[in-house]
Amino acid sequence: MTYVAKKCGIRFQPPSVILIYEDENKNRARQRIMPIRNFSKFSDCSRAAEQLKNNPRHQAYLQGVSLQQLQKLYSLLRGHLQGKSLAQSLEQIQQEETIDPEEDLNKLDDKELAKRKSIMDELFEKNRKKKDDPDFTYNVEVEFPQVERLESCGWDAESDNEF
Predict the structure, then answer these.
(1) What per-residue confidence (pLDDT) applies to 135?
(2) Alpha-carbon gap, residue 74 to 79, rounded angstroms
(3) pTM (two decimals)
């Protein structure tokens, strides 16, 4: 049997993931409620999302739902368990998903760096122009206007004289 996920959401009381899907064989919209057990405000959202997606009971239904969407739903639930409002939780998720261009990525630990890289890869794939796109042009050359005059670096000239 093949199922097509239409909508996926979270219910706070009792904690559960709700999936609205369509059974392709019968062309009927159905609802599946997947209870969330053993999840607290200290739980890891990515690990819980992976466990739900790989659960044999729900695996066939969750094929059309991305792991990232499940992680967001678990983050909303964790925010609710911590006493945050829905708006605060959504704002926090939005902050985690945006990348500050001024942030020094060299100072991040491996887990945070991998998270930032996956966000950048996803953004790149979303904005990338493919050959099948209607506005795709091959071999585009662009001249960038030079607003300021380039300054030569003094350290480069000094280092040549010292040797």
Answers:
(1) 83
(2) 9
(3) 0.69
